[in-house]
Amino acid sequence: MRVLIDADAFPDIREIIKLCKKYQKEVILYMDTSHEIESDDAKVKRVLTSSNAADLEIENDAESGDLVLTQDYGVATITISKGSICLNQYGKFYTGDHIDLLLEWKNTSRILRKHHHIKGPKKRTKKDRETLLKNIEEVLRKCS
Q1: Are 109 and 118 in contact (CB under 8 A)?
Q2: For every residue of 16-27, which 3-state class applies, written as one string?
Q3: Structure pTM?
Q4: In the chain, which end has fewer C-beta atoms inside a 10 angstrom radius, N or C?
């Protein structure tokens, strides 16, 4: 198992890397060249700064059994179909059962944004952070 992180916008990366080190899991951070994150305990894959470049790299690299951490429904859809485990920034698991609904919501939101200003996602709370780290550790422990 590897842990693939969409590092362009994913929170709590340093804490996640510490958890992965504890369970001796390889971590790969995917980011475009406009972001700067360095870590001795994670491999950093930089891609050109362009729309969805990091997402495409994650989708191509993901394998069955990997843990993918992303906020992007499209990345989640592709990686789940490859047999990866996928979590969002709130610590919620993406599953095949509800991914179609999420993709439909993404499309509807895109259409609405053309005509109206829509508030972004709610701000993450301390509980969201705790849920994320707890669920990551649970997956790492089960796969050790």
Answers
A1: yes
A2: HHHHHHHCCCEE
A3: 0.85
A4: C
